[in-house]
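the two lines:
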Amino acid sequence: MSLRLQIGRAGAMLVLAVAALVTGSQAQVLNSGASTITLQAVLSDSLTVSLSGNAVNFTLTPGSANNPGSLGVSATTAWALKPSVGSVKVYAFLASSAAALTDGAGNNIPSADFEISNNAGPFTALTTTVPFGGPNAGLLLSNTRILGNNRSGSHTDLMNFNINLTTLPSLPATTYTGTLTIQAQAI
Amino acid sequence: MNTGKVSRITAIALGLALATTMASAQALNSGAQTIALNATLAESLTLSLSANAVNFTLAAGSAANAGSTNITATTTWVLKPGRTSVGVYAYFANAGAALTDGTNNIPSSAFFISDNAGPSTPLNSTVAFGAANGGMPLGTVAITGLNKSASRTDIMAFNINLSGGTLPQLPASVYTGTLNIQAQATP
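prediction for all of em together
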C-alpha cells in the first residue's frame, strides 16, 4: 500500500470517528432539577339553616287547645362536615320558658303551651333543655347521623305551630309577641 | 434508641391524640334563624239568653204575678288588661211604660226580677243603659288577673206587682214590653 493510500484511509477513519462522536453526544438527554408545587385544597366545614318564612301569626281563642299558626315554616339545614362529626341536630328554642310570648305587661304564654309539629309528627311543647336558649324552652327537631355518604348533605324540617291555651283560661285579651329561634349543631 | 428519644416520641403521640380528640369534640353551630311570633287574643263581651219570651197571667191588684219561665243570661268575656269590672244590667227603654197596651201602662217599678234566687227587686234604678229609673244591676264582677277570660250566669225569675198605686185598677188588656239584658266592661 502506498503511503498516499494509507493516509487517505486513516483520514477517512478519523472523519467517521468524529462523526460518530458528534452523533452520540446529540442523543444524550439533559434533565433539569425537579421543582415541586405544593397543592392545597380546603373544603371548609359549614352548617347553615335557612327558613322559608320568618313570621307566624296566631288568632287566639281563650281556653282553646287549638290555636294554629297562620302558616308552616320549613327549616332547611345544609352542611359540609369534617370526618370527625357524628351527627347534625336541629333545635327550636325560645329565650325564656316562662315567657315564650308576652304582652310586655306581665301576661305571658309559656313555652310549655307553644307546640310544634315537625314533619307531620305530633304536636310537642317546647319544654326540653337544648344547647341553645332558655332552660326547658326547647325542642329537638331532628337528629341526622353523619356517615361516609352524607358528610355533605341537607335536611328539611317542616314545622307547624300551635298555641294551647287550656292551661291559660284567664289570659287577657291583647297581642302577644315572641321570637322562636331555629339553630343547628354538628358534633 | 435511647430513653429520651422514646419519651419525646411518646409525648408527641399523646399530644396528637389529645389534639384530635379536642377537634372532634368541638361543636359546629349554624347561625340562629328567627321566626317572629305574633298571637292576638281579641277582646270580647257577649251575653246570651236561654229564652227570649216570658208570659204573665195577671190577677188584678195582685202582688204576685210570676213569669211563665225563668231565663238564664250567660255573660262571657275576654278582656284587655286594665278592665276592672263587668256589670250585667236589666232595663227598659221607658220607666213609665215597661209594658203597655198602647194606652195603659205598667211601669218598670212594678216589674221585678229575682236574680239567682235573690230578693225580687223592681227595675227602678238608673243603670248604664236604658231609661232613667228603668233598670237594675243584675250583677257586678270584679276583674282580676284570674278572670280576664271568664263568664257569669244570671238566672232571672220575673214578677209583676199590681198592688201599688193605680195598678189595682189596671184595665183588662194585653200588655207587652221588651226587657233588655246587657253587659258592660269598665273602664
